[in-house]
Every structure is written in C-alpha cells, then in structure tokens.
Amino acid sequence: MKLASAGSVFHVHDVSKIYHMGEVEVHALRNVTLDLYQGEFAVLLGASGSGKSTLLNILGGLDRPSSGEVFYRDHDLTRADEDGLTRFRREHVGFVFQFYNLIPSLTALENVALVTEIAEHPLDPAEALELVGLSNRRDHFPSHCRAESSSASR
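Structure (tokenized):
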C-alpha cells in the first residue's frame, strides 16, 4: 500500500478499469499512474471514449477501478466501503455534471435545499441561489428557468 506522494492530493497508481458487456471486455483505462497536487491546474484531454469520465468518476469516488490504487491524501479510496466513499464525496468532492440533474417537480430553491441537507456545514439555500445570481428564480421550476435563460440570450 502506497500513500499519496509528498505534497500530492491524489495519487493514482497503475489504475485500470474494465467494463464487461456480455462477453465483450471494454478497457476504459489501462495502467494509469499520476499525481495531482494542491493548487495545481490540470486539464484532461482525449478523444471521445478515451476514459476521461471514467478517470474522473474514479477520482470522485463514484466508481472503483478494476485494478490499481487510488489515494486522496490519507484516504485509500480503492479499499473504502460504500459508506466510506459516501463520506469522501460528502466531505471532499464537488461535482458539476454536464447535464441538468435537477428534479423537475421541485423549484430552484427546493432543488438547492435537497443538496444542502447532506452537507456538514450547509449554506442557506436562498443564500446559495443569491451567490450564483438566481435568487429571482427561486420559485421557478427547472424547465421554466431554462426557457427564460434561452430566450434571454438571443
């Protein structure tokens, strides 16, 4: 077992990820080794299907590698159980998905309140909407917010 290198936030050693689709094996990652350091700005580039999202899902504790080791500081993500990965995501990770992940039957305020309930020290949902300039849409449903922002940008 190798802990993260001195000064690194993430240490990824010899990580592979294989998905099984019937009898076919899809190798999403093959023997990836890297260190990411605090304050470092990293860009992940590659063709569609090259494993970028797979690597990010593994770093974020959403998925596990088929082989290899992943450490976040002193946390061994490779050997963490589901509760440990949930704590890791709750305490150390923020996700920005490329698709809307909002519940359509809840208002903007209610969607934000849902997420803030899992945080250890949550922001007030109204304050969070204010910070991103959406306080005037707090009672709007996601489909209404998108329609307004699309027509406003024309």
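The longest helix spans residues 82-92. Residues 8-92 form a domain with the Rossmann fold fold (CATH 3.40.50.300).
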